[in-house]
């Protein structure tokens, strides 16, 4: 336990999700707390990956294993985040559905969820 946690403050948490062709749901590709969380956020920002801050969601997602798909009970929360980014930052649209046969197979979306 860190000094910050003992003092009553929670360590920063971050989770990176990736949703690619063939995935039934977004997959946890990075997860961490404290310094590791800061590095996840820094790396996401450096690569233009959108970052969404939600402490409750980050807390739940950090309980999952790397490579694990998000559980069905979190689908709605994740969809709302994707929709949020698409509404306010249309250039980030990496997930637009295309009719079958129009190279929709090479699209993938990344997102990071952060919490304090």
TrEMBL record:
Organism the protein comes from: Pusillibacter faecalis
Name of the protein described by the UniProt record: Type III secretion protein
Gene Ontology cellular component annotations, sorted alphabetically: plasma membrane
GO biological process, one term: protein secretion
InterPro entries attached to this UniProt entry: T3SS_substrate_exporter (IPR006135), T3SS_substrate_exporter_C (IPR029025)
Disordered as annotated region, ranges: 94-116
PANTHER family given in the database record: FLAGELLAR BIOSYNTHETIC PROTEIN FLHB
Comp. bias (Basic and acidic residues): 94-110
